[in-house]
Amino acid sequence: MKIIVLSGLPLSGKTTYAKKLGPKYKMPLYETGAEVLEEVTGRGLEFSPENIKKVTDECKKISDSYFTERLIKKVDALTADISGVFLSGLRAVSEIEVLKKHYGDENVFVIAFHTSMKTRFNRLNNADRVAETTGAKAKEDILLRNFDNFLARNKKELGYGVGDVIALADYMMSTENELWPYVTIEKNTEAFEIILKEILGLKD
């Protein structure tokens, strides 16, 4: 099974392309953010930036790869006909190393997504995102529409080490849609599929 890690700062497009092509290749998507949500709300806490940080810090004291290890259990439970999975939200090189130790270096790949802060911030108000985002995640988006909160979230992600994961990625995609280099979502989907086929060993 191929493990494809999607890395990038908030709203860089990590899950957008996985959701577009995942069904076509029967590849499920698992996100550490969903595991954090489950952990926070499971403790009876509100899904707020303060509680997210509190719970995340506590879990990382147990294991630096706490949420990645939770994802591994879900991936290992998949049926044998699944050829690969997407994992999103991993923030540290140590988490990639845990995956490689478990699945083998040759089966773990990192695709990094890079986009300017201005573009990513503006995506919070995209009509499709607003329509699709509900529950606790919608509340988080409302908080992030304050630029200071958005900046703080980015700094937190970088503090966890996501910049190192991006820098060491096997593949890099620019998902900028305002400034140079401008690429449409259609073109990016095509590029993402080329990468995906290469990883899965598929030919046209």
Textual characterization of the structure:
The protein is α/β, with parallel strands linked by helices. It has a single domain (2-200), classed as Rossmann fold (3-Layer(aba) Sandwich). Helix content is 57%, strand content 13%. The protein contains eleven helices and five strands. Strands 2-3-1-4-5 form a five-stranded parallel beta sheet. Helix 2 packs across helix 3 (49-62). The longest helix is centred in the last third of the chain and has 16 residues, at 185-200. The chain is globular. It starts with a strand and ends with a helix.
Keywords for this entry:
204 residues; five-stranded parallel beta sheet; Rossmann fold; 13% strand; globular; 5 strands; alpha/beta
> Quick one: how many beta strands?
5
CATH level 3 topology: Rossmann fold
Largest sheet: 5 strands, parallel
Portion of residues within helices: 55-70%
**Rg, alpha carbons:** 17 Å
Uncertain stretches of 5 or more adjacent residues: none
Question: What is the helix/strand order?
Answer: EHEHHHEHEHHHHHEH
Largest beta sheet: strand ordering: 2-3-1-4-5
| Measured distance between first and last alpha carbons | 20 Å
Q: How many separate domains?
A: 1
So what's the overall shape? globular
CATH superfamily: P-loop containing nucleotide triphosphate hydrolases
Which CATH architecture is right?
3-Layer(aba) Sandwich
Broad structural category: alpha/beta
The percent range for strand residues is: 5-15%
Rounded mean pLDDT is 90
The helix count comes to 11
Give the class-level CATH name: Alpha Beta
